[in-house]
Amino acid sequence: MQTDHVAYLTQMGIDCYQLSHPERLTGYQAPALELPAECKLLLVSPVSPNGELALLFERVLKSINISLDQARHIYPEQATQLAGQSMEWVWFAGCERTEQLAEKALTTPLLSEIDGNNQQRKALWQQICSY
């Protein structure tokens, strides 16, 4: 299920569930995720950025000239469902780097661990500058 649909259902007070390991079900084919063509950065993280973390995420995007509309979030278990798409940037935050989805890949702790931590912010900035 797309993250937008999950957010809408949650706002309406409707519980939704997603299989953590759909590959364990015999014959089950997880639907492929298709990202919009304008997507330049994909955030792969077990936690969706909200509130203060969303502001941090937006500031990082601005530093690499990407708008919030050009970024998407998926959970780590959804990375295998991407339909052979590649984008400019993939940011793995708080999870293992699983696949080569883009030429420019960032690997950091969770956004909550970066916020207010100058050492983590510096490490993130060094990764960005290396590209």
Automatic annotation (TrEMBL):
SUPFAM superfamilies: DNA polymerase III psi subunit. Coiled coil: none annotated. GO terms for biological process: DNA replication. GO terms for molecular function: 3'-5' exonuclease activity; DNA-directed DNA polymerase activity. Keywords: DNA replication, DNA-directed DNA polymerase, Nucleotidyltransferase, Transferase. Part of the beta sliding clamp loading complex, which hydrolyzes ATP to load the beta clamp onto primed DNA to form the DNA replication pre-initiation complex. DNA polymerase III is a complex, multichain enzyme responsible for most of the replicative synthesis in bacteria. This DNA polymerase also exhibits 3' to 5' exonuclease activity. This is DNA polymerase III subunit psi. The gene is holD.
